[in-house]
Amino acid sequence: LNDSIESTDLSFDRWIVVLYVCSLSGCLITEEGCTSLASALSSNPSHLKELDLSYNHLGDSGMKDPSWRLDTLKYEKNV
Predict the structure, then answer these.
(1) More exposed terminus of the chain, fewer Cβ within 10 Å: N or C?
(2) Carries keyword Amino-acid biosynthesis (predicted)?
(3) Eight-class DSSP state of 12
C-alpha cells in the first residue's frame, strides 16, 4: 500500500462509486419505470453522462424533455 493510504480506507463500506455510463437497453422498462427513473435522476445529483434506454417499452411520453443533463441519451426502437 501507498504510505498515504491506510488499509482501512480500502474497505467496501468506504467506496464511492461514480456511474458515468448506464446501459439499460432491452431491459423491458415500461413508461412507469421510465417516469421513476426520470424522477430519480432529476432529484439526485449525478455524474451520469450516457444513458441507453433503447429497445424498451417507454410508451408515448417516453423520454420527452428530461430535466437532467447527459452527453448521450439513446432511446431508439422503443414501443
Answers:
(1) N
(2) no
(3) G
pLDDT tens per residue across all 79 residues of the chain: 444 444 455 556 667 777 889 999 999 999 899 888 888 887 776 788 899 999 998 876 656 656 667 888 888 877 6
Strand, coil or helix: what is 53?
coil
Cβ neighbour number for residue 53 with a 10 Å cutoff:
23
C-alpha cell at 58: 417507454
3-state helix, strand, coil in the chain (%, to 5): 25, 15, 60
C-alpha distances (whole Å) from 46 to each of 15, 18, 49, 70 are 16, 8, 9, 10
Domain ranges of the chain: 18-74
**Rounded-to-integer distance, Cα 24 and Cα 36, Å:** 14
